[in-house]
DNA sequence: CCAGACGTTGTT
DNA sequence: GTCTGG
DNA sequence: CCAGACGTTGTT
DNA sequence: GTCTGG
């Protein structure tokens, strides 16, 4: 799955990679957790790519209780087409979440004790960026409060991630960004081929300190390789 | 038909 | 144990 | 994902 | 809003 990630690339790099119209000024983040505001790339009505912020945790339009958002942080690519909670967003409101890397926890049973060892998974190529496939939805509370929300699609783990965890985020090929964001594509089955696990050669993984467990710890040292 | 859920992950 | 918040 | 709270009443 | 279960 994808329940924690990082985005520390300079705004200039993010802009280049995602071909954004506007300047970006972002603080680097090493520990992005659900429930917080995250950067999303969308296509506006003029076909231009725009960056925005959404709360991570999708709240469907029809929800009366926004706390459902804390459960809808991921959508399974294999079943997303059929799920009422994601159906509308998949048709009309796809987005991409820029990332410098993501965390997965490996369950390690050692002398009878169960430990969860966090790993950081990043592009194998230095300075590269990930674009996670995402869905967005705008929720309006009964009092009229507007909340932009999003979630991240997940898929089966590829060969590199599998020893750590059996799920991983959908990492789009840059050549697929346009198609994924195109609001004209309303036939969800046409999007299927984009949602495969990315090639393992594009990734590298290494263990990091359990300091990352604490969602409020956002220090750059979280990226430091740790021994297991 | 209406009522009630609508999700993923991991663990048992 | 289970839900909420970050 | 993990961490941390999880409740009501009455009083300040 | 839309699907599932009764």
Write the layout of secondary structure elements.
Blueprint (H helix, E strand, L loop, with lengths): L4 E3 L3 H8 L10 E4 L4 E7 L5 E8 L17 E3 L7 H9 L1 E6 L1 E10 L2 E11 L6 E11 L5 E11 L10 E3 L7 H5 L21 E5 L21
Parallel strand pairs: 4-10, 5-10
Antiparallel strand pairs: 1-2, 1-7, 3-4, 6-9, 7-8, 8-12, 9-10, 10-11
This protein binds four DNA strands through strand 5, helix 2 and strand 7.
GO molecular function: lyase activity; peptidase activity; single-stranded DNA binding
Family: Belongs to the SOS response-associated peptidase family.
Enzyme class: hydrolase
How does this model look, in words?
This protein is mainly beta. It has a single domain (5-212), classed as SOS response associated peptidase-like (hypothetical protein yedk fold, Alpha-Beta Complex), CATH 3.90.1680.10. The chain is 10% helix and 36% strand. It is built from 3 helices and 12 strands. The strands form 2 sheets. Strands 3, 4, 5, 6, 9, 10 and 11 form a 7-stranded mixed β-sheet that branches. The protein has a 5-stranded antiparallel β-sheet with strand order 2-1-7-8-12, with no helix packed on it. It is an enzyme of class 3 (hydrolase). One of its GO terms (biological process) is protein-DNA covalent cross-linking repair.
């Amino acid at each position: 799955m994808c329940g924690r990630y990082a985005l520390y690339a300079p705004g200039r790099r993010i802009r280049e990679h995602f071909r954004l119209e506007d300047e970006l000024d972002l603080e680097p983040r090493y520990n992005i957790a659900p429930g917080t505001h995250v950067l999303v790339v969308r296509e506006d009505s003029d076909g231009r790519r725009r960056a925005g912020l959404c709360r991570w945790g999708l709240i469907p339009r029809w929800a009366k209780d926004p706390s459902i958002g804390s459960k809808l942080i991921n959508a399974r690519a294999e079943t997303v087409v059929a799920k009422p909670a994601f159906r509308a967003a998949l048709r009309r409101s796809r987005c991409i979440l820029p990332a410098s890397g993501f965390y997965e926890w490996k369950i390690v049973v050692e002398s009878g004790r169960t430990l969860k060892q966090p790993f950081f998974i990043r592009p194998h190529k230095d300075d590269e960026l990930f674009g996670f496939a995402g869905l967005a939805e705008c929720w309006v509370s009964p009092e009229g409060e507007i909340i932009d929300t999003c979630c991240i699609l997940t898929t089966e783990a590829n060969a590199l991630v599998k020893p750590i965890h059996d799920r991983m985020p959908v990492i789009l090929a840059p050549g697929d960004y346009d198609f994924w964001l195109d609001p004209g594509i309303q036939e969800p089955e046409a999007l299927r081929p984009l949602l495969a696990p990315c090639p393992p050669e594009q990734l590298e993984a290494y263990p990091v300190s359990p300091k990352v467990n604490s969602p409020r710890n956002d220090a750059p040292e979280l990226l430091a390789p740790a021994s297991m």
